[in-house]
């Protein structure tokens, strides 16, 4: 309760709008991801930050330190160009209590925190920016901002179903990049190094009159697709989908319905879209702490859910219709946690839309193995009824056998709907 009262004071002074909270493994520090989303009408945008709260002694306001991103406002050239700083820019000042942050500090919005085993370093997802921050806990300092990069859906193994109007399960390779944009992230120790595991949900920036997402088919006005885009021309010249023109590619049963970013993919002169960037990776992934991708589940989640419930493939969490999330983020993996059972390490990933939890053995991060898909949702029931069962899993927590009331390891799942 003291922590809650303390942090309410902190919020009232800085308008940080926290999204996630976690303790370090040693229990001495509480970390809070202050997402600091803009006002609904985008008249005000506070800066994102991470609160570092010392809880091992007597608590006071002095126990709270704030790690911010202002260093990148003073040296924006230090920011990797793949870190997405985009959209309208408005003031961060709401009253005299705030020191005016710059564009980068306002734009970056911490979402989720994972902490390494020695409680000294944390990794913070910056979802819309498609990046993560490295936090030094003892000094409450952001040391680095690392981009996740992009997933190429033209590569074998990275297929997606891109349309909600083709009336079928149709996983294919498309000339689209996926922005990983993870929500939840977990960490584990492997052969002396910390590895990061992400649930690659995807997220759209949409505030006031600014809407980042647009249908691929809609990119035909003042900023159309580049007619001479090497990637698009190469796809049209050689694909196995029977597509031979840009107009065919733009059909609603092909790529036309897919939601893509208007904030990424433009040519430097702003004249047209050179490349298409969709939201999320429809997967979970394993990374080194320098941002190197070690493994990604590719198209597994859509393939596995299609086999498990083919009549309800890519259903959303409010409807039982086939395919109605294919144009957006597919099964939309949101939560992830890690647990050890009998000497093996497992990743559990929650699929917010179609429902259920994916279980993978990640003991060897170079060659993870699918174990099972668990989904208690009753697709015969109304999604708004009690009979539907568990729906829209978001938060996950693994309970070790030694801490379990049954003596067996347990997975606790918070279902949002």
Q: What report would you give on this structure?
A:
By secondary structure, this protein is mainly β. The protein has a domain of 147 residues. Helix content is 11%, strand content 31%. The protein has six helices and 25 strands. The chain has a four-stranded antiparallel β-sheet with strand order 1-2-3-4, covered by helices on one side. A four-stranded antiparallel β-sheet has the order 5-6-7-8, with no helix packed on it. The longest helix is centred in the N-terminal third of the chain and has 13 residues.
Question: Could you give the order of strands across the largest sheet?
Answer: 1-2-3-4
Number of strands: 25
Global Rg: 22 Å
Instruction: Give the uncertain stretches in residue-range form.
Output: none
Strand content: 25-35%
What separation lies between the terminal Cα atoms? Answer: 27 Å
User: How does the major sheet shape up?
Assistant: 4 strands, antiparallel
| Number of helical segments with 4 or more residues | 6
Estimate the helix proportion, in percent. Answer: 10-25%
Shape: globular
The helix/strand class is mainly beta
Mean pLDDT: 92
């Amino acid at each position: 309760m003291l922590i809650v009262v303390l942090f309410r004071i902190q919020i009232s002074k800085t308008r940080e709008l926290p999204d996630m909270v976690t303790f370090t493994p040693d229990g001495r520090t509480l970390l809070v991801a202050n997402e600091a989303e803009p006002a609904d009408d985008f008249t005000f945008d506070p800066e994102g930050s991470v609160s570092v709260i010392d809880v091992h002694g007597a608590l006071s306001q002095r126990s709270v330190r704030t790690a911010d991103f202002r260093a990148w406002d003073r040296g924006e050239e230090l920011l990797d160009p793949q870190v997405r700083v985009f959209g309208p820019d408005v003031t961060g000042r709401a009253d005299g209590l705030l020191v005016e942050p710059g564009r980068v500090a306002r734009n970056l919005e911490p979402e989720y925190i994972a902490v390494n085993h020695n409680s000294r370093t944390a990794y913070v997802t910056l979802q819309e920016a498609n990046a993560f921050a490295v936090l030094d806990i003892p000094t409450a300092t952001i040391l680095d901002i690392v981009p996740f990069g992009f997933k190429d859906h033209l590569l074998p193994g990275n297929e997606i179903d891109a349309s909600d109007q083709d009336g079928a399960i149709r996983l294919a390779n498309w000339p689209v990049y996926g922005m990983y944009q993870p929500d939840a992230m977990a960490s584990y120790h492997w052969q002396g190094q910390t590895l990061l595991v992400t649930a690659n949900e995807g997220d759209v920036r949409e505030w006031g009159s600014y809407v980042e997402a647009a249908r691929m088919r809609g990119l035909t006005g003042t900023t159309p697709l580049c007619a001479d885009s090497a990637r698009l021309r190469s796809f049209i010249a050689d694909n196995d989908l029977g597509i031979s023109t840009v107009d065919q590619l733009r059909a609603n049963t092909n790529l036309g319905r897919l939601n893509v970013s208007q904030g990424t993919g433009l040519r430097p002169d702003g004249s047209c879209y050179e490349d298409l960037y969709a939201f999320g990776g429809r997967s979970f992934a394993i990374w080194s702490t320098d941002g190197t991708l070690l493994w990604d589940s590719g198209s597994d989640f859509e393939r596995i859910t299609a086999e498990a419930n083919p009549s309800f493939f890519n259903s959303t969490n409010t409807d039982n219709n086939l395919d109605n999330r294919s144009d957006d983020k597919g099964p939309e993996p949101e939560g992830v946690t890690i647990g050890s059972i009998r000497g093996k390490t497992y990743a559990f990933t929650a699929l917010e839309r179609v429902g259920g939890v994916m279980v993978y053995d990640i003991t060897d991060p170079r060659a993870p193995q699918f174990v099972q898909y668990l989904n208690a949702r009753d697709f015969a029931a109304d999604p708004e009824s009690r009979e539907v069962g568990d729906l829209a899993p978001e938060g996950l927590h693994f309970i070790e056998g030694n801490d379990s009331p049954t003596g067996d390891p347990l997975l606790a799942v918070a279902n949002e709907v």
